[in-house]
Amino acid sequence: MLSFRSLKLAVLGLTVLVAGCNRESGEKAQPQPSASAAAEVPQGKLDRSHKGSLLPDFTLKDAAGKSLTLASLKGKPALINLWATWCAPCVIELPTLDKIAAEGKVRVVTVSQDMQQTEKVAGFLIERGGRNLTPWLDPENDLAFHYEASTLPTTVLYDAQGREVWRYVGGHDWSGAEAAKLLAEAQS
């Protein structure tokens, strides 16, 4: 009999394969992003249906064992981004998330949904333009289940009080004027 966690993992895996990025190899593999692909970020969908929800009570770790409790993010707007190394739209938007992190107005928390080879996430993040991003891990996909994230990337903005402002499901170019306007909503 399947445990609840095994069942959750099976459902999430199936959902991501059907609805979002896939991990296939060979001819059917999702194409890897090119260096000039930033302008090609597929546009996702804005979701405000969870507005006002509190930051979840989760603790993330990095490959070295350092911890981050999401509740500790209160006091400054936070942008939580669920991504994976095998997800082309996720990888394409990393440099634009890195730019937001460098500006320092919003805390950007990138949470890898890679279930295997998690020790490679940090190097991958740096190689792909994420020098200002910390490689947090969620190898059991608990946070993805909490957000009911069936598509990667999924990005959630919280205000300084730890209340959700919106979710963005799918890839996005976080460097443009539209993105700046969306991020400014956490300030109001």
Q: What proportion of the residues is helical, as a percent range? A: 25-40%
Fraction of residues in β-strands: 15-25%
Global structural class: alpha/beta
Give me the side-by-side strand order of the main sheet. 1-8-7-4-5-6
Which features characterize this protein?
188 residues, alpha/beta, six-stranded mixed β-sheet, globular
A few lines on this structure:
With 188 residues, the protein is of the alpha/beta class. It has helices spanning 4-19, 88-103, 121-127, 142-147, 177-184; strands spanning 45-47, 59-61, 67-69, 78-83, 107-112, 135-137, 154-158, 164-169. 28% of the residues lie in helices and 19% in strands.
Structure characterization notes:
The protein is built from 5 helices and 8 strands, in the order H-E-E-E-E-H-E-H-E-H-E-E-H. It is of the alpha/beta class and 188 residues long. Residues 1-19 and 22-39 have low confidence and may be disordered.
Strand-helix topology:
Blueprint: H1 4-19, E1 45-47, E2 59-61, E3 67-69, E4 78-83, H2 88-103, E5 107-112, H3 121-127, E6 135-137, H4 142-147, E7 154-158, E8 164-169, H5 177-184
Parallel strand pairs: 4-5, 5-6
Antiparallel strand pairs: 1-8, 2-3, 4-7, 7-8
